[in-house]
Amino acid sequence: MPNLWVDADACPRVARDIIVRAAERTNTPTWFVANHQVPLPASRWVKSLAVASGFDAADHEIVKRLEKGDLLITSDLPLAMEALDKDAMVMTTRGEGLDKNNIRARVQMRDFMETLRASGEHTGGPKGYSDSDRREFANALDRWLARQR
Fold first, then answer.
1. Residue 35: which CATH number?
2. Do residues 56 and 85 make contact, with C-beta atoms less than 8 angstroms apart?
3. Rounded to two decimals, what is the model's pTM?
4. What is residue 134's predicted lDDT score, i.e. its pLDDT?
5. How many Å from the N-terminal Cα to the C-terminal Cα in the chain?
6. Which NCBIfam families would you find in this protein's record (predicted)?
7. Domain range spanning residue 15?
8. What is the DSSP string of 54-108?
């Protein structure tokens, strides 16, 4: 079975809880990678990997360990692009699948919004993590795990 990798630095707690329950239920090797220790329950299947602090240190460690067919859960678009280049699957914590067909447009939109913000435009931040986001993520993760069986 492929590994499940989580960019844990910005993973909402509710998504983390969903991932832990799903990993335990399906016996899926799961790694939460961050530049700090992520609090997790004792588990045979779920592990935390704390990396040295530094710019993108967790991202670099994830990319180094990713293998073809693994799933990465992240909202970090440059990290997602690197994972896709390694033939990994990528999903956001809102359950959105990222692939080679949609990642470039997402990165371009992100860059455009950063340019607007840098020019003083108020674009607002990402919307809060809602119950529908939680449901979409849990369902998308369950579908991926079911395909791995």
1. 3.40.50
2. no
3. 0.86
4. 95
5. 8
6. PRK00124.1
7. 4-148
8. STTHHHHHHHHH--TT-EEE---HHHHHHHHHTT-EEE-TTS-EE-TTTHHHHHH
